[in-house]
Design a protein that fits this description.
Strand content: 15-25%
Distance between the termini: 40 Å
CATH class of the largest domain: Alpha Beta
Radius of gyration: 26 Å
Number of strands: 19
Largest sheet: 7 strands, mixed
CATH architecture of the largest domain: 3-Layer(aba) Sandwich
CATH topology of the largest domain: Rossmann fold
Length: 406
């Protein structure tokens, strides 16, 4: 059986390597790592391979060479903490790797700041934005550590904070940790968006609960928490049932069609943090209301599309979930387009107060091969009287749910 590939975390500088780790590196037949990590070992005569963007090629190379050679892979920080160790474990199998961890950049950053980090949220922006997850954690008052990349650098990150009403978050940029050029800067998002930083950096974001009060986010929020036109909003109790029927998940893509004030999209943001939410609405005034609600609740992964349905859907990514709160006479056409794009196992939920629309939704979904169920929701709310209360009935709402088979 071939010896496992050794993956060594270098910490934040070569000085963090132990004597044992150095001996393992010196005895390698093949040394693999980024240019910066391999540079201190240029004197070694072993074969060297630089890690670049071709991870598939790297995996294939290691799989071919591991049976006949002693291979050491160098990774910055802790290899299994947002590092290449996770990729190699999946590609080669956990039994074929041995990981020697070291100090991560996050551990070092909070050591420099003199603060504990056991409750800190950690997000990597390498190759992705994850804006929704990031802003939700900040809106909830949590400290967040962010691994950036050249496309999602501290200035880009600061712009996201400013644009989403989080300008008062404290921001630290920790550059070149462990090197002679190490630099730690504490500044506001407004200042950071105008600044330039080393590509090798980590950002720490810390909301101050005493300075900001952002509305809580929960299913079925009262209507007065949203900016909306009177009566043109999915009612709180109906909204809670709709969210349950949609069965949302973290990485889902949701289409909210005929979004109105965007209340369903906003509340979906508590469940979809690393996915994407698209609210399509034809009326400019309501589009502005959706954007105001988005800003109020910091839903960073919500995209608002101003279009008259079924227009505006062609450029959207295929959805996992579709909610239709307003389709009018075009409902059947909208359903067919949504169904054509819906991923296997996806769900479409339609709300209506009209009998004809109820029939059209049920029949169209059934004709398209969906398993359909329907419910009528009747809500009665207590109203005060001089000596007691009475219950006032709201209009009944039909909720039609279509499940696409896997």
């Amino acid at each position: 059986m071939a010896p496992p590939i050794t993956i060594i975390g270098t910490g934040i500088s070569p000085d963090d390597l132990t004597a044992r780790q150095i001996r393992i590196i010196e005895n390698a037949d093949i040394l693999v790592g980024g240019q910066r990590l391999i540079a201190p070992f240029a004197h070694l005569t072993c074969r060297k391979r630089i890690i670049d963007k071709d991870l598939k090629g790297l995996g294939d190379f290691l799989a071919q060479q591991m049976t006949a050679h002693t291979i050491v892979v160098l990774a910055s920080g802790d290899p299994l903490f947002f590092g290449i160790g996770a990729f190699l474990a999946r590609r080669l199998g956990a039994a074929n790797i041995r990981v020697l961890p070291n100090v991560s950049a996050v551990a070092c950053a909070f050591a420099r700041l003199g603060e504990p980090w056991q409750d800190v949220r950690i997000i990597s922006l390498h190759g992705r934005s994850h804006t929704g997850e990031l802003l939700r954690h900040l809106a909830d008052g949590e400290t967040v550590a962010v691994y950036t990349d050249p496309a999602h650098d501290p200035a880009w990150l600061a712009a996201q904070l400013v644009d989403n009403g989080l300008s008062d978050v404290d921001l630290w940029v920790l550059e070149e940790l462990g090197s002679p050029m190490e630099k730690i800067t504490h500044l506001t998002p407004a200042a950071a968006r105008q600044a330039a930083f080393s590509d090798l950096n980590l950002v720490v974001l810390k909301p101050d609960p005493a300075r900001r009060q952002r509305p809580a986010l929960f299913p079925g929020m009262p209507e007065d928490m949203f900016v909306h036109e009177k009566g043109l909003i999915t009612k709180a109790e109906v909204r809670a049932v709709v969210l349950s029927r949609l069965r949302l998940f973290d990485r889902a893509v949701l289409w909210d069609l005929g979004a109105g004030s965007g209340s369903v999209s906003i509340e979906a943001g508590q469940f979809i943090r690393r996915g994407s939410i698209y609210a399509v609405e034809q009326h400019a005034r309501r589009v502005a209301q959706i954007r105001e609600n988005q800003h109020r609740f910091a839903i960073g992964n919500l995209t608002v599309v101003e279009a008259r349905l079924p227009d505006g859907l062609a450029e959207l990514p295929d959805p996992d979930r579709v909610f239709i709160g307003g389709g009018g006479k075009n409902l059947a056409d909208i359903l067919r387009i949504a169904a054509d794009r819906l991923k296997p196992g996806g769900i479409i939920v339609v709300n209506t107060v009209l009998i004809d629309t109820l029939g059209a939704a049920r029949q169209t979904l059934a004709d398209l091969g969906f398993a359909v169920d329907m419910l009528q929701l009747q809500v009665n709310q207590a109203k005060p009287m001089p000596y007691s209360y009475r219950f006032e009935a709201a209009n009944p709402v039909w909720i039609v749910t279509g499940h696409r088979p896997q």
